[in-house]
Amino acid sequence: MQPIIVIAASSGSLDPLKQIVSALPIPCPASVFIVRHVGPHQSVLPALLGVLTDLPVMHAEDGMLIESGHVYVAPPDRHMRLEMDRIRLDQGLLTLRPISHQQSAILRG
Q1: What is the structure's pLDDT at 103?
Q2: For position 56, what pLDDT does the model report?
Q3: Cis check: omega of the bond before 27, within 30 degrees of 0
Q4: What b/e sequence results for 19-55 when a residue is b if at least 16 CB atoms lie within 10 Å of its CB, and e otherwise?
Q5: CA separation, residue 84 to residues 16, 17, 31, 66, 81 (Å)
Q6: Given pLDDT bands bounded at 50, 70 and 90, which one contains residue 108?
Q7: Pairs from 91-98 (Cβ < 8 Å, separation ≥ 24)
Q8: Which residues are in the CheB-type methylesterase domain (predicted)?
């Protein structure tokens, strides 16, 4: 798997996310994954971030192939996980498994 950047953000994180995405190098050797706590509401986050970079910014889709230099945003009320070279999306809290030691370290920052 190529290098990845994982960003977990709260609902009030729009300005920091804009700063991070606008500072990504072009070309970017990593795939960028953003999960933002927004609940089931419609999200325009890919459009808001996409105007700040020449990198493709999109909502992730289940089964989507992971490509370097792309920014993937988890859709509202979905959890995003990576399996080999694909993105997997799960519905809200219902399908969460216990958090592993490595995942816990990512969440703590």
Answers
A1: 54
A2: 98
A3: yes
A4: ebbeebeeebebbbbbbbebeeeebebbeebbebbeb
A5: 29, 26, 13, 9, 10
A6: very low
A7: 92/40
A8: 1-92
At 23, list the tokens: 């500072």
How many domains in the chain? Answer: 1
Per-residue DSSP letter, 66: P
- Residues of the domain holding 35: 4-108
| Domain harbouring 81, CATH code | 3.40.50.180
Report whether 67 contacts 73 (CB < 8 A).
Answer: no
Dihedral sign (CA 78, 82, 107, 27): negative
In this structure, which amino acid lies at residue 16?
P
Does residue 12 register a pLDDT over 80? yes
For residues 17 and 1, give the distance between their C-alpha atoms in angstroms, rounded to a whole number: 24
Distance CA(106)–CA(53), nearest Å, equals 25
**C-alpha–C-alpha distance, residues 82 and 101, integer Å:** 17
